[in-house]
Amino acid sequence: MATSRAMSEPSIPDGRNGSSSARVSENGIPILGYLYEIPAREGRAVVVGAGQSLTIINTHGSQVCDFWAFNATDLNEFSSMPHQHAVASGIGLHEKSALVSNARRPLMTVIEDTSPGVHDTVVAACDVHRYRQLGAQGYHDNCTDNFKQALQAVGRQPATVPAPLNIWMNTPVAADGSISWLAPVSSSGDRFVLRAEIDVVAVMSACPQDMVPINGADQMPQSLAFIVGEGE
Asked: Which Pfam families does its entry note (predicted)?
């Protein structure tokens, strides 16, 4: 099997879509209170200042959002799910949960979740290899490439692709350790709101997965939306 460019050059995507050119601004600083769309299968990056809120909206109700947060002044510090598990002594996430970094400190805090609270902190972001294993022919949009493109669009170069927080993804872990790939239990208009504890760069991908039903029984990726606000 051919080695992807991403294996030898971690910041370079294997393919491109609108994530490369569409952005909230040249440097990622948004208009506060403005409703931004993330089209289906694409990603966006946005700067969220300390104390500001980031509201992610599941517009259609069945769309998973792969999510990452980085220290805005040092991309070597990022939200880390393995560290999250250790700090929280669990794999769940709920209101008042801190999203911790690889330095084991809070980058953001969940301040509101209007969904039933089913999210995933275990599964890696989809990539070209995942879709090849599932039988995709040719290039398939994926969250790993959306992540890289979204950061590059606002002038950032990631050195690695951390495991994401998969908001609204319903992949329960059974007692025997197996994972099920189920449709979300979220609803149209559900909000997931985080407060930034330091200045962060947040990256969101409207997951392009259309080969297993994690984006709904119809396996149809949809758009998401987000707003950055002044916070509490």
From this structure: DUF1989
Identify whether the C-beta of residue 225 lies closer than 8 Å to the C-beta of residue 192. no
Burial (CB < 10 A; 0-12, 13-18, 19+), residue 182, is middle
Task: Give the model's pLDDT for residue 11.
Answer: 80
Domain-by-domain residue ranges, the chain?
Answer: 34-222
Structure token pair of residue 151:
């950061």
Q: What is the pLDDT of residues 122-179, one digit of tens each?
A: 999 999 999 999 999 999 999 999 999 999 999 999 889 999 999 999 999 999 999 9
What is the phi/psi pair of residue 87, to 5°?
Answer: -65, -40
Cα distance between residue 137 and residue 165, in whole Å: 27
What's the mean pLDDT in 81-96? 93
Question: How far apart (Å, rounded) are the C-alpha atoms in residues 168 and 146?
Answer: 18
228 DSSP β-pair partners: 54
Instruction: Round to whole Å and give the CA distance between 18 and 55.
Output: 22
Distance of CA 43 to CAs 16, 36, 189, Å? 11, 12, 19
1-18 tens-digit pLDDT: 455 665 657 788 999 999
Place of tokens 């297993």: 212
Strand 190-196, strand 106-113: pairing:
antiparallel
